[in-house]
Design a protein that fits this description.
The structure is a single chain. With about 240 residues, the protein is mainly α. A two-stranded antiparallel sheet has the order 1-2. Strand 1 and strand 2 form a beta hairpin. Helix 1 crosses helix 3.
Length: about 240
């Protein structure tokens, strides 16, 4: 087989696999399936779509990689649940290789997260916020940790999850969680925090107090102060390089 013919066949197979991906997605939409619902078996898809088994397998692997299909060996195939794991891994990798640059991927990500959270606290204020008991519980835990030496990353993450829960927007948690996972994959590269644990806890309480008081200016100021420590760690690393 000539190289040209081999390339044509390869391109045809890839093109057919892409068509099958679209057909599987259309099947999910047409049947109004949701995350966790079972999908037809591989053999059923071959018959229903009228395509070869290899094209179906290739398409399913690609859909599994982006979280649209969940293949559980021994159990079957299901509509996947949305995941940003691929984004997290890619952001973490590219952030690591640009860590010492003046404008690193991590720096861009911090800008985006700060802009996102600054907007989210304003949304909370629009919703006539009240003091959420779970937020106060997390703050008490954070302050107790600060007294013995360090606010744990888990408690910090829990505060942000609890703060935005009244928005009832599941994508908020997923997006912030993805940014969080990237940042904490890189925490060893960034070195020790510059802020004292008491300051970390205080800045989080300032955010809570500003939101509950519906003080927009104070909320914006508290959020800037919160991210100042993260920016300082990144700046310190860039100075070393």
């Amino acid at each position: 087989m000539t190289t040209a013919r081999s390339d044509r066949l390869g391109n045809r197979r890839r093109s057919r696999a892409l068509e099958v991906q679209d057909e599987v997605k259309e099947l999910i939409l047409r049947r109004r399936l949701v995350a966790g619902d079972p999908l037809p078996t591989e053999s059923e898809l071959v018959e229903e779509l009228g395509v070869g088994r290899n094209a179906v397998r290739e398409a399913l692997k690609a859909l599994q990689a982006v979280g649209i299909v969940d293949i559980r060996h021994g159990f079957g195939m299901f509509v996947g649940r949305m995941s940003l794991n691929g984004l997290v891994d890619e952001l973490a990798f590219h952030s690591r290789i640009t860590m010492g640059d003046e404008r690193s991927h991590l720096g861009y990500m911090i800008e985006i997260r700060e802009a996102l959270e600054s907007g989210l606290v304003q949304l909370l204020i629009d919703r006539d916020p009240v003091a959420e008991p779970v937020v106060d519980e997390v703050l008490e835990r954070m302050e107790a940790e600060a007294k013995v030496g360090m606010v744990s990353p888990e408690t910090d993450k829990l505060f942000h999850d609890a703060l935005y829960r009244p928005l009832n927007n599941p994508l908020v948690g997923q997006l912030l969680g993805a940014f969080w996972d990237v940042y904490h994959q890189l925490r060893d590269d960034l070195g020790e925090p510059d802020e004292a644990p008491d300051d970390v806890a205080r800045k989080h309480r300032d955010i809570r107090n500003a939101v509950v008081a519906a003080d927009r200016d104070a909320a914006a100021s508290a959020m800037r102060a919160h991210f100042a420590g993260v920016r300082a760690r990144l700046a310190r690393l860039q100075e070393k390089n």
